[in-house]
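Q: How do we represent a protein-ligand complex in a form that can be generated token by token?
A: Start from the inputs.
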Amino acid sequence: MADASTFDQVEAAAAAVRSRCGALPQTAIVLGSGLGDFADTLTDAVSIPYEDLPHWPASKVVGHAGRLVVGTVAGGVAGKRVAALAGRAHVYEGHGLERVVFATRVMGRLGVRQIILTNAAGGINTGFAQGALMIIDDHINLMGTNPLVGPNDDRLGPRFPDMTEVYSTRLRALAEAAAKARGVAVTHGVYAALQGPSYETPAEIRYLRTSGADAVGMSTVPEAIAARHMGVEVLGISCITNMAAGILPQPLQHDEVLETARRVRGAFVSLLEGIIERL
Ligand code: HPA
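Then emit the structure tokens for the protein with hypoxanthine bound:
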């Protein structure tokens, strides 16, 4: 399969998932750094390690488990099958953008109607508190590249897809309603994506703030673009795990990112359940 096209590789992986996952999921959820535990809350679940799936890129970052779990959401959400992706491929690991969006495309070909992209992010908006959950209203792609660069495969989507509403107005309103009903505080904002892996400098954070960004991270945007290319509806949620560089008088540490994500795990899982309940 070394020379198989992206489309064939995506189809092969989708077929492998289909043959093992039981009832097909309607929603995919990509779990960000330290947020992978949500996958353990699913019932009637089939857990597939990424290495068992053909062509699937491995993620080796600490805090990313590397498995696909298809199951039913706990908390009385009858019959709602979801695919939880614990671990994602990042640009900073050296993956080409095509590899970074591979899982998203497999989900699209499996037939999911919506994808929920979650991440850990640094807070740029000084009104945010560490541990806040931010519904992504829009993004700024500062990765210097785009997952759709290269020949377009019309079976996936159009050459020049519209990005006027990457993050679905319908799903954002639904997330807001779920947050209210569950008593989970949420905020809204614009997510800027950089390649990483070095964190930003204080000057870069001031630049991003002036540019209209409220949070910064190293993921999500490629997947959101690939999902919209395929016509899949997107919801994005950032966990503000730390204030961005230069805001507080202390250096940034990945351990702090994971610790904050763990701290808000309960609220995050409750919010996700509330959202899926309403889909
Ligand atoms: N910057 C970039 N990515 C991040 C951050 C940050 O401050 N926190 C979590 N992911």
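The helical segments are 6-20, 97-100, 102-110, 169-182, 202-210, 221-229, 254-263, 265-278. The longest helix spans residues 6-20.
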